[in-house]
Specification:
heterodimer, A: alpha+beta, Uridine Diphospho-n-acetylenolpyruvylglucosamine Reductase, domain 3, 2 domains, four-stranded antiparallel beta sheet, 13 helices, 17 strands, 31% helix, 23% strand, globular, B: alpha+beta, Alpha-Beta Plaits, 18 helices, 19 strands
Chain lengths: 381, 497
């Protein structure tokens, strides 16, 4: 062991779980800590996965990467970029939202939280790219699920459950991810000055076209609002599709190609959420794009918003209060997760959107299936 | 047949009339079938080697009826086997003598189409192709395209996580579903997911898809639809050996190209297909590759030239590019007819479905040839080359004593081989009854117990589609035990952390 108390192998993790079971204490699975300020503040024993790091196997031709959970995201991304590949779900690093540098997030943390970036709208989520894993369950037992090939339907698809479980089911000790070729070229096109509703229509038309738009976002700022579309792939194809979009969206105004540095800054702002300021609580609302405006209308002027995923993901900074924000999201058929707030508020307001009773009961039984003693139920969620 | 199913419960068999009466009270009229002759069409699915008349068939028309049927069966300890169109190739819908077969065929309506948010809400009995048919007029389609798409239902696709030739680029069913309504074994109706991306809590949708009817009965599915690509072009490439074809696939992917489809056939499959449909396949090659590119015209033109160059670098002995839609369809005609074409070579064939890491293909084909000699049964191979999903077709004659058993033994050896080289038992057909007893090749008892506890979370009495997927269904109470206290777990006395 490199550091006392930090597991460095799967057996260590199993031992730590066994210790906690025997001691009757809870365990908070953690990685780089980039998301530590999400959820109710709790003081329980930590199970840090940062000691399990490194690449187990990477075979670019097979499109498969097996890696230990504590490996920094930045390291994983650099590795696959070296072979001209990418994690297509564009892993989302929460660090910058909390004023930290990019790069603290670990691959295990990103996948366990199931958080995906702007490209999720076209390429799928973390859950779509987790092919298999090894883990230690709340019973202290090591098990495997899924596989190390890209196409597999053998047994229940537990990797789906792992992505987005936020450490409430088991501690993953090894992850196998699907990787894809990185685009050779990317271009960002901009429409200016569109009101939210009109921007959503423009993005919907673009996404429904043959232009194969990789990401679409809208950053409202009154008359200075910006709507951006990313087109990527092989050069000739990118040019053809950009031309296609110009014609398709002509009635929304001129479509400008942004210089690369400006484009990067725009997409970056959807990761840092800088345009939302740092004062108010920040929410993450998932909704069908067609109902995005409905999800924010009741907050009338009391919210600053950023729309990603063509309107399917809304970042909201608002003091409107949990009840109103959640009611608005629910009425639009979506849900709202509390991401950034003061410790007092987080102690009062659950991070996850409350589920209907039927689903809540199933979820509870599923959690008990992997963690009968509630070892990973730290009270954070 | 060598397969053992759970022994039928005699008390259920003797209560058949009472059960039928109770279900008729829920689904009036013709919706409950008990007549032997009318049960016959339900005795098997696409895996026809196994047959069993169900206790009875019930064909509900509403979610409420499904809920009441399941609640009644749950209360009375009656097993239920759900069934869509019955095209499963793994026996997922194989009836049980003491189970009600719940057919969803009457759930055949498309409920909503939303072009702005690009989704379709459909009842489970709607066929896969009907979804595309409903939206193609507006330039959209539903991407997963299993070969049985004319007949197979979207509910069955959901249960089996069906794939198709385009899934390397467009994903399996699971990557194209947004939400569902599902009825649990106790009759509770729950909605999971919705029209948005990513769920509010655990990704239950993700485990429901592909759960082979063991967790719940799906009564509504919301799927994503995609804009049809502007165009598609195909290349037909012949190789002097499988190794070169495999290298061509690897080099294509290494060049950053993810084709819409990439299919390989070996010599026996090529010859059978050519004899059947005269697709114009070269007959002097050991491996044939069909590579399809789709997207904007400019992209197809660009990439098809790249793939052609890659093929020539890999000893391709013949390369043809489709000049129009008719020719592209002709390239595919042989591949799509491969199963019936191979079916003409012998009275019966048995289709396998393992996935392997692609780089192991040459040695796997070599071993298949050895096994073919060992069992005295011919084999033809079609291969979703992009994602390593291998479909060996074993030729046999069920009327010759012992041939079915030999075919099954050969098939089991193939799947063991797939696992040994780092692959899996099934890439897209599901475990069902067919590969159930091979699960221990891939998973330990502990791995399987973790999966089965999920089953217990949804269906603690194990009434829904029992006898499928798991080689042995343990009682849930037995699986739930955990000996934390009293030192029964082999933990060290001293904490290490």
């Amino acid at each position: 062991m490199s550091e006392p108390g930090v597991p460095t192998c799967e057996q260590d993790v199993a031992d730590a779980v066994a210790d906690a079971l025997r001691d009757g204490v809870k365990l908070a699975i953690g990685g780089g800590g980039s998301k530590a300020a999400i959820g109710s503040p709790v003081a329980v024993r930590a199970l840090s996965m940062t000691g399990l790091r490194g690449v187990v196997d990477y075979d670019p031709a097979e499109l498969v990467l097996t890696v230990r959970p504590g490996t920094p995201l930045a390291e994983v991304q650099a590795l696959v970029a070296g072979s001209g590949q990418m994690l297509a779900f564009e892993p989302f690093d929460h660090g910058p939202i909390f004023g930290r540098d990019v790069g603290a997030a670990t691959i295990g943390g990103v996948v366990a939280a199931g958080v995906s970036g702007s490209q999720r709208v076209s390429a799928g989520a973390a859950r779509d790219h987790l092919l298999g894993f090894r883990a230690v369950s709340g019973r202290g037992e090591m098990f495997v699920a899924g596989a190390r090939v890209v196409k597999n339907v053998t047994g229940f698809d537990l990797p789906k459950l792992a992505a987005g479980s936020w450490g409430r089911l088991f501690a993953m000790t090894e992850l196998t991810l699907k990787v894809l070729p990185a685009p050779r070229e990317a271009r960002t096109l901009r429409l200016a000055g569109l009101p939210d509703e009109v921007a959503i229509r423009a993005m919907s038309r673009a996404m429904g076209s043959q232009a194969d738009v990789a990401a679409a976002a809208h950053l409202p700022a009154g008359a200075d609002s910006t709507t951006i579309l990313r087109v990527q792939g092989f050069g000739p194809s990118v040019s053809a599709r950009c031309a296609m979009l110009e014609a398709l969206l002509a009635d929304f105004g001129p479509l400008m190609t942004l210089p690369a540095d400006e484009a990067d800054a725009m997409w970056e702002s959807l990761r840092t959420l800088a345009p939302l300021g740092s004062e108010r609580p920040v929410w993450r609302v998932n909704v069908a794009p067609g109902r995005a405006c409905q999800a924010i209308a009741p907050l009338d002027g009391e919210a600053a918003c950023l729309f990603d995923w063509a309107g399917g993901l809304i970042w909201i900074a608002s003091d409107a209060g949990a009840d109103r924000i959640r009611a608005a999201a629910s009425s639009a058929g979506g849900h709202a997760m509390l991401i950034r707030a003061g410790a007092d508020m987080r102690a009062q307001v659950p991070a996850f959107h409350p589920q209907p009773d039927g689903i809540a009961r199933v979820e509870e039984r599923v959690r008990r299936a992997f963690d009968p003693a509630g070892l990973f139920e730290t009270g954070r969620f | 047949m060598s397969l053992s199913m759970p022994p039928p419960a005699q008390d259920i068999l003797s209560r058949r009339a009472e059960i039928a009466a109770a279900l008729r009270a829920i689904v009036p009229g013709e919706g409950v079938i008990t007549d032997d002759a009318r049960l016959a069409p339900y005795e098997s699915d696409g895996l026809t080697a196994y047959r069993q008349h169900p206790l009875m068939v019930v064909l509900p028309e509403t979610t409420q009826q499904v809920s009441r049927i399941l609640a009644w069966c749950h209360a009375h300890g009656v097993k239920v086997v759900p069934r869509g169109s019955g095209t499963s190739l793994s026996g997922g819908a194989l009836p049980l003598a003491d189970a009600v077969l719940l057919g969803l065929g009457k759930f055949n309506r498309i409920l909503d189409i939303d072009y702005d948010d690009r989704l379709v809400v459909a009842q489970p009995g709607v066929t896969n192709l009907a979804i595309t048919r409903a939206v193609e007029g507006r330039g959209f389609y539903y991407a997963p395209d299993p070969s049985s798409q004319i007949a197979c239902s979207i509910g069955g696709n959901f249960a089996e996580n069906s794939g198709g030739v385009h899934c390397l680029k467009y994903g399996l069913t699971t990557n194209n579903v947004l939400g569902c309504e599902i009825v649990l074994m106790d009759g509770e109706i729950v909605r999971v997911g919705g029209r948005h991306l990513d769920p509010a809590g655990l990704d239950l949708l993700g485990v429901l898809v592909g759960s082979e009817g063991l967790l719940g009965v799906v009564t509504e599915v919301t799927v994503r639809i995609l804009p049809q690509p502007e165009t598609a072009r195909a290349l037909l490439i012949g190789f002097p050996d499988a190794e070169s074809a495999g290298q061509c696939v690897a080099d294509t992917i290494a060049a950053g190209i993810i084709p819409a489809g990439m299919e390989m056939m070996d010599r026996p499959a090529i010859h059978a297909a050519e004899a059947f449909v005269q697709a114009g396949y070269p007959l002097d090659v050991e491996a044939l590759l069909i590579v399809e590119l789709d997207g904007p015209m400019a992209e197809c033109d660009h990439l098809i030239a790249e793939v052609e160059a890659i093929a020539r670098r890999n000893k391709a002995s013949s390369v043809r590019m489709s000049r129009d839609e008719a020719e592209r369809a002709a390239f595919w005609a042989g591949r799509k007819a491969a199963f019936p074409a191979v079916g003409r070579l012998a009275p019966d064939y048995y289709c396998m479905d393992g996935t392997i890491p692609r780089r192991r293909l040459p040695e796997v084909l070599e071993e298949l040839e050895r096994l073919s000699k060992h069992y005295g049964l011919a084999v033809a191979n079609v291969f979703h080359a992009g994602d390593g999903n291998l479909h060996p077709l074993i030729l046999y004659d069920a009327n010759k004593p012992g041939e079915l058993d030999r075919a099954e033994a050969f098939g089991s050896d193939i799947l063991r081989l797939c696992v040994q080289v780092g692959g899996v038992l099934t890439g897209e057909h599901g475990v069902g009854v067919e590969k159930r007893d091979l699960m221990p090749e891939m998973f330990t008892e502990t791995d399987l117990a973790h999966q089965q506890r999920l089953k217990c979370a949804f269906d603690p009495d194990l009434l829904l589609n029992p006898g499928k997927v798991f080689p042995r269904l343990h009682r849930c109470a037995e699986l739930g035990r955990m000996h934390v206290h009293g030192g029964a777990l082999p933990f060290p006395d001293l904490p290490r952390f």
